[in-house]
Amino acid sequence: MPGLTDENFRARGDERRFKFACGHRREQGSSHGAVAVELRIDPSSEVLVRSPGTFKGYYKQGEATRDTVTADGWLRTGDAGFVDSRGHLVIIDRAKDVGKLACGEAFAPQFIENKLKFSPFIGEAVAFGHDRPFVAAMIAINGETVSTWAERQGIAYSSYQDLSANPRVRALIRDEIRKCNAGLPEAARIRRFMLLNKELDADDNEVTRTRKIRRRFVGEKYKAVIDALYGGRSDVELVADITFEDGRKATIRSNVTIENADEAPLTAAEPAHA
Q: What string of DSSP letters covers 260-274?
């Protein structure tokens, strides 16, 4: 639905049903021709809207109409979302691509991952949570920005693997996760995380050439890590195969720390910035 995600589309009311005043903007910033639009988040987290302008259905296509418009006139947008603390509608993904946490709350991994990657210190992230009691994440640090930060902090390191294992780097990423969590519903917030000892790589079949995560492959390859994240463990042995630019292959092993996102961070020597 055009304009549905506009920031000016603002909710008022309870979390189940909202009313909006939508109109055309004049250049001076005032509005005219306002019309009441109702919004509702259904139990599956799909966004439904209703207004005098909502279409009544498809011509001579009863089944398609029933799939799109409810009997009482609500239009199914096909998008999943929630209303944040400011009363703004937030679209998290297409409804068909949204999973569920064990508690029944919506889980949109791509939305969480993209929010994490707003941080200059996070290169890639993989969020888990479907049919699980909480959200957990594997994170690959941005080697360039984190190394610059580490040099400013006087942190010695010899490799990406060494850098990602540093406790102060974990504290840095924990703070970035907390910033991300502040914009998420309570149930969707990341509870546990770990830092990968390598970057996710298309040559290792972990992401596509356009950087989309191969979820099924990653889930199988890092099964031991996922089990440790949800098993309450504080560390896990991570065995990762890497492919060099010249085609050579190697295996790296390291014991990776798993932490809770709400643990107290270490004190940094200076404010974190890229």
A: ETTSPPPPPSS----
CB 164 within 8 A of CB 247: no
Domain that holds residue 195: 99-260
* Residues sharing a CB contact under 8 Å with residue 218, sequence separation 6 or more, in sequence order: 126, 200, 206
Q: What is the pLDDT of residues 195-244, one digit of tens each?
A: 999 999 888 889 898 888 999 999 999 999 999 999 999 999 988 777 77
Whether 194 and 241 map to the same domain: the answer is: yes
Same domain, 54 and 80: yes
Strand, coil or helix: 131: coil
Count of the separate structural domains present in the chain: 2
Report pLDDT digits (tens) over 91-142: 888 888 888 999 988 899 999 999 999 999 999 999 999 999 999 999 999 9
With beta carbons less than 8 A apart as the criterion, state whether 129 and 109 touch: yes
Residue 54's CB is within 10 A of a number of other CB atoms, namely: 16
Tell me which of 62, 95, 128 is where a domain ends. Answer: 95
Within a domain: 212 = yes
Map tokens 């050579």 to a residue: 248
Residue 242: inside a domain: yes
CATH code of 61's domain: 2.30.38.10
pLDDT digits (tens, 9 = 90+) for 38-53: 889 888 888 999 988 8
Q: How far is CA 9 from CA 22, 36, 37, 49, 188, in A?
A: 7, 11, 10, 12, 23
